[in-house]
Design a protein that fits this description.
The protein is of the alpha/beta class. The chain is about 45% helix and about 15% strand. The chain folds into two domains: about 190 residues, Glycogen Phosphorylase B (Rossmann fold, 3-Layer(aba) Sandwich), CATH 3.40.50.2000; about 160 residues, Glycogen Phosphorylase B (Rossmann fold, 3-Layer(aba) Sandwich), CATH 3.40.50.2000. Helix 4 packs parallel to helix 5 and helix 9 packs parallel to helix 14.
Length: about 375
């Protein structure tokens, strides 16, 4: 009898990191796979679904613009509860990360007595307000999961410190590395190579130009934080005429209104619509380095051997900093300009932060996750 696996995701980062696991499970006759998309993000996800060719079995629509996180959680719980009550059989629910969708999926699994597997378990900032609400979500999910698939030794240790049983913690590496390798293969086999993608975005650069990928969207950076980042960019553009920023601007008005007010028609700052995943990887591959407050991009940068300035005061991915790839600068204008200038001016300092061993694994996390669940469920079945 195959094992019935159901994957829940609601946002693009969740899909990207679950895609290699879903695709491998669907190729394996030992699993029967079901995929639930909650619709927490709509406009940013569809491209990734099509790119990875993920078949969706249940498409929910929990997002209601302007509603509170509590309303979002309530709607997710109600709709997911209905899906799983109607499902003939489900052995395991698999969630990834720390969104409201993930918390809802974990609660539904617990209340319906379904095993829960948490991919990318054990990330901690130890500050419930940063990032909000993700830090609280992932701590809560850790109380409910049966399998904790930790991407690194440090994240596994965080779980042990919270008295999660050792036999339920598994260091797998991060599935984002699997996703990048798979995406690169898909892009190589398609007619649109990276250069064509960049030109389509309007990024036609000369040989001496240096491209920097910038992303900024975290709630805690709204307002003063975004303003400080913009002020730093103005300073850096004046200092380095060869510099070009590619900024895929988040759709939240608190980000795009400021970005367009500051940089509309600026010759060195290219304001882009949110990028689909292959376009993002094309920019990552071309960029000299990266400025971001995104957790996912912090994880992707070591695979590309690119330094990353982290626009946050704390990170739940300290491995990026410890490996030497990441530099925490927050949204302090002086610090951003100082560290940015060092990377531009000092080739040895740049190499020190670029040529690092990837702390997130070897691209085989998906196989480890599936084999572990299979092994444990086979043992459980034989002992019944």
């Amino acid at each position: 009898m195959p094992i019935d696996l159901s994957f829940i995701f609601g946002t693009r980062p969740e899909l990207i990191k679950l895609a290699p696991v879903i695709l491998k499970a669907r190729q394996d006759s030992r699993f029967k796979v079901n995929v639930v998309f909650t619709g927490q993000h709509l406009e940013l996800v569809q491209d990734a679904i099509e790119f990875f060719q993920i078949e969706i079995d249940h498409h929910l629509q929990i997002m209601q613009p302007g509603k509170s996180l509590n309303i979002l959680l309530s709607k997710a719980l109600t709709e997911l509860d209905q899906v799983y009550r109607d499902m003939p059989k489900c052995d395991v629910i698999v969630v990834q990360g720390d969104t409201t969708t993930v918390l809802a999926g974990a609660l539904v699994a617990f209340n319906l007595n379904i095993y829960l597997a948490h991919v990318e378990a054990g990330l901690r900032s130890f500050d419930l307000m940063h990032p909000f609400p993700e830090e609280a979500n992932r701590q809560l999910v850790s109380r409910l999961a049966h399998w904790h698939f930790a991407p690194t030794r440090r994240s596994a240790e965080n779980l042990r410190q919270e008295n999660i049983p050792d036999q339920q913690i598994f260091i797998t590496g991060n599935t984002v590395v699997d996703a990048i390798y798979h995406a690169r293969d898909l892009m190589q086999s398609s007619s649109q190579q990276s250069q064509q993608r960049l030109e389509r975005m309007g990024l036609k650069l000369n040989e001496q130009d240096k491209l920097v990928l910038l992303t900024a969207h975290r709630r805690e950076n709204f307002g003063e934080g975004i303003q400080n980042i913009c002020a730093a960019i103005h300073t850096l553009c004046s200092r380095y005429p060869e510099l070009h920023f590619a900024w895929p601007v988040h759709l939240n008005p608190q980000v795009y209104e400021i970005a367009y007010r500051e940089f509309l028609d600026h010759p060195q700052v290219h304001l882009l619509k949110p990028l689909d995943y292959p376009d993002l990887l094309a920019v990552l591959g071309t960029a000299y380095f990266i400025m971001t407050d995104s957790g996912g991009i912090q994880e992707e940068s070591p695979t590309y051997q690119k330094p990353v300035l982290i626009l946050r005061d704390v990170t739940e991915r300290p491995e990026v900093v410890e490996a030497g790839c990441g530099i925490l600068v927050g949204t302090d204008q002086t610090k951003i300009v100082q560290e940015f200038s060092r990377l531009m001016d000092d080739p040895a300092y740049y190499r020190q932060h670029a040529e690092v061993e990837n702390p997130f694994g070897d691209g085989h996390a998906s196989e480890r996750i599936l084999e572990q669940m299979l092994q444990d469920l086979t043992v459980a079945e034989s002992s019944n």
